[in-house]
Each structure stands twice: as structure tokens, then as C-alpha cells.
Amino acid sequence: MVFPLSPGAKKMKIGLTYDLQSEYLSLGYSEEDTAELDKTETIEGIETALHSLGYETERIGNARSLMMRLFNGNRWDLVFNICEGIFGDGRESLVPAILDDWQIPYVFSGAATMALTLNKALCKRVVRDAGIPTPDFCLVRSINDLEKAKPDFPLFLKPVMEGSGKGIGEHSLVWTEEEYQAVCCHLLKRYDQPVLVETYLPGREFTVG
After folding, report:
1. Is residue 58, in this structure, part of any structural domain at all?
2. Would 8 be classed as within a structural domain?
3. Are residues 104 and 131 in the same domain?
4. CA nearest 180: which of 151, 157, 206, 148?
5. Total structural domains in the chain?
């Protein structure tokens, strides 16, 4: 959380790290590929809010821009990080890890938490070990796993390391073995990552953050 500056306090310089969706779209990535990335108006909104609290801001951009600026000698009192990344299973933890190495404070979670929560299967295991109920699940890493034991139908299928609803649609809820195998094969091919298979929980869905 960022608080208003006290009267007479030195104005802090806050760097903004983010992945701008339009930049990746211009490189040929699709709307779905970039669904989690930020729009210009989001960055402008954050800047406006921080300026209203008395802070100075500087747009940094993505992880590569951050590294270039650090090597060029740029520094900030604090970094407001909303980078999602687009490559690999450690993409959300990359910016926090870089900032940790350069001993620059930042808002939101650290590298370990970001890496854990991106991988839903690992996160579910930690939650389960802490005694918090979570639906039964298994992980399909390849078509060779389709015949392995899984929870009872109906099942809900989704990529194990995505957010913003990527890979989720009407096809995600499966009731038969035929549907299960077809959807798993589609998700494995489309997202090139394991498929999280969970017992379906009916009811309303809430996002907490």
C-alpha cells in the first residue's frame, strides 16, 4: 500500500513496471496471448493516483526495460510493479527477483510468492498442506497422462499457469471421458503447459485480490 506523503517530506520517486498490451500486439502476439497485460489507461490511472498523493513517477516498462535502466544507472525509491510477463513459468516473479538483487523496494508480493501462485497445482498443494479445503485435482502433463487416475466427473479443466480466464470457456466443464480427452488435448497443444483437472464446484465465483 502507498500512503500520502507527510507535509515537508522529501518527494519519493516511484518507478512503474508493467507490460503494455499494445507493445506485444504490435509484435504479432494475439489478443488472447496478451489478455493479462496492461492498457495505457491503466498506467495513466496509477500515475494520476500516485501524483495526487504527492509522489513523482517514472514509467519503466517491462522487465527488459527495467534491466536496461538499472545498467544505465537509473534508480527509484520504490517500484510499483504490475508486470505479468509473457514467457515461462517464472514470468511474474522476474521483476521482483531483479529488484531484490538490486535492493530496490517494491509493492505487492515477492518473487517466491509470485512464482508459487502462478502455478495453480503447486499453490493448491501448499494450501491443502495448510489444512485449507481445495477441490480434488490431478495434473495432465502430456497425452500419456490421460489414462491415469483422476477425480470423478464432472470436471473442470484449465491451463495450470494462466490467469484472466485464458483457456477457460464453455468447453472447460466436462462430463464424459470423451470430452475430457478432447479438451485436454486441445489445451496441451494450445498453451504448451500442463492441464489442471479439478472436481467441478457449482456456484458463484469470486476474485479476491
Report:
1. yes
2. no
3. no
4. 157
5. 2
The amino acid present at 92, given as its one-letter code, is E
The span from the CA of 114 to the CA of 13, in Å, is: 24
pTM over 0.90: no
Query: pLDDT tens digit string along 114-170?
Result: 999 999 999 999 999 999 999 999 999 999 999 999 999 999 999 999 988 889 999
Q: Same structural domain for residues 187 and 103?
A: no
What does the alpha-carbon distance between residue 26 and residue 22 come to, in Å, rounded to a whole number?
Answer: 6
In tens, the pLDDT along 25-76 reads 999 999 888 988 999 999 999 999 999 999 999 999 999 999 999 999 999 9
Beta strands in 38-185 (DSSP E): 56-61, 78-81, 137-140, 155-159, 173-174
Q: How many helices (H) and strands (E) would you count in the chain? A: 7, 7
CB neighbour list of residue 132: distance below 8 Å, 6 or more residues apart: none
Q: How far is CA 103 from the centre of its chain?
A: 23
Give the structural domain span for 181: 119-199
